TrEMBL record:
It comes from the Bacteria. It is found in: Cell membrane. Keywords: Cell membrane, Membrane, Transmembrane, Transmembrane helix, Transport. This is Probable membrane transporter protein. Belongs to the 4-toluene sulfonate uptake permease (TSUP) (TC 2.A.102) family. The chain crosses the membrane at residues 30-58, 79-96, 102-120, 132-156, 176-195, 202-219, 231-252. The keyword Glycosyltransferase does not apply. It is a multi-pass membrane protein. Its main location: membrane.
Amino acid sequence: MDALTAGFAQALGIAGVVLCGSVLQRVSGMGFGLLVGSVLSIMLGPIEGVLIVNIFALATSIVTTYSMRAHIDFQRLKFIAPFLLVGSIPGMYLIARTGTGLLQIIVGSVLLFSLALVVVGKKFLPPIRRMAPAAVAGAVAGFTSMIIGAGGPAITVYAQASKWDHRSFSSTLQPILLLAATISVSIKLVVLGFAPVQQTAVSVWVLGTVGMFVGTWIGTRLAGKIPRDKARSFTLVIATLGGISALIRGVAAL
């Protein structure tokens, strides 16, 4: 297989992953960053892969935010939003000062920690009524968005502990993810000087964009027909395998 064919096959694979992530995002309200981030960090590395996830997550969140805008809780959104930036700062320094192998290990560890938050957090966290945990959740979401391209797990755990109405939470999560992705992309491109457009094949962007729109279209039609729990369970399994693989690759690189 020559380089051109191999590159197209890789772009096609990335498009398929983006499509699946977009479907899950629309059906369950989360899952794009967890699924796509775990796969692309392995395929393209922890820097380029996660940045591409951030860019596609930004675009996906624009579409889902618009389609779910009727039930957004703007009061909570305005409170959480500034803390996304707070949490992204340590993530920025970690990316800037860490080698590729160690960063791959960190990506895998943060991904598995995020999954543990979703699976275990809802069982052991006591009910909360104050807004301070929302600030913590926002900061953690900003950090994980920078590192693995997924800001949803921390907000999900906060929503479960605060008994946030699911429809309002799912709708408000979309602009939160949009802001987190925007912050991550801006910092990586402007502050850290990453340039994925120059490094990544055009076919990745073209086919990935097609996969994103097709996945969102499919997800919109499947929303309500596929149980959210099953969609999330699928995401968690794939993301767990991706996190373990990222850890192994990072250890091997060291």
